[in-house]
Design a protein that fits this description.
about 280 residues; about 20% strand; binds S-adenosyl-L-homocysteine; single chain; five-stranded mixed β-sheet; five-stranded parallel β-sheet; alpha/beta
Length: about 280
Amino acid sequence: MIHRRFKSKHIFSLLTPHHTSPPEAEPIRSGTVYLVGAGPGHPDLVTRKAYRLIEQCDALVYDHLACPDALHWTRPTCAQYYVGKRAGAHSVPQEEIENLLVKLAREGKSVVRLKGGDPFIFGRGGEEAMRLREAGIAYEVVPAVTAALAAAAYAGIPLTHRSHSSALILLSGHEDPAKLERAIEWRVYAKLNATLCLYMAMTRLEYITSELLAGGMLPETPVAVVQNASYPEQRTCVTTVVKLVAEVKEHGLCAPAMVIIGPVASYAESLAWFEI
Ligand code: SAH
């Protein structure tokens, strides 16, 4: 009897929504730097936490790939600092960005450092967090939808699939110029039966594909290039490793784009939903 009562109560609690309002949000803290991911660009893909911090912060320090709508969500008194690449010019040096974050926090401001995608995936979030830690400044890291996940979802590519791929590898095509040219051994990734997602790879596709082929990747392995994922101007091209360079040139595809390599890439031809 008792057992039955417990059971029915349990079922009832599953069926009844008991959290109708969102959990109570903590207020933003002054003198703190929030390393916030803005996601791939579409405003609906910004997390609730990122949105709340952007709305409340005293200072917003942002990159060129951060969600453009976010700049309109701040308070009128919020100071905005653009530290991304300017047309034809180099980005603000990393050290200068870090100095700015430290300075603003020491002035007692609540600072949102807004980055495209996730701050800890090819976003220098680790370097900035380390600098803040060394300077004794409080910080939080706010995760977000990284470009690989967004590009795959918005192009209709399941990154893992029971029949085709049970591993996912995120790689940077464009490495730190200070590092040795062959720091990534592309040939190692040629025969792993994993889905490869290449960030910042558009200018190095010739080298990367030749290395993958030399490492034994099948020339007919499907590849999808998703440019401007989640933006209205998103474009996807599905091809093969051996044809990739020619197709990219023919269609004029360029950064920001995600290169997804592996059998799952061909699903974009049947599961596309955003570009139709
Ligand atoms: N921290 C970011 C990555 C920054 S590196 C993240 O987690 O997504 C910049 C690279 O990300 C670009 O060169 C491109 O390869 C990829 N990228 C960022 N936004 C993108 C978008 N909307 N569509 C396709 N690729 C994107």
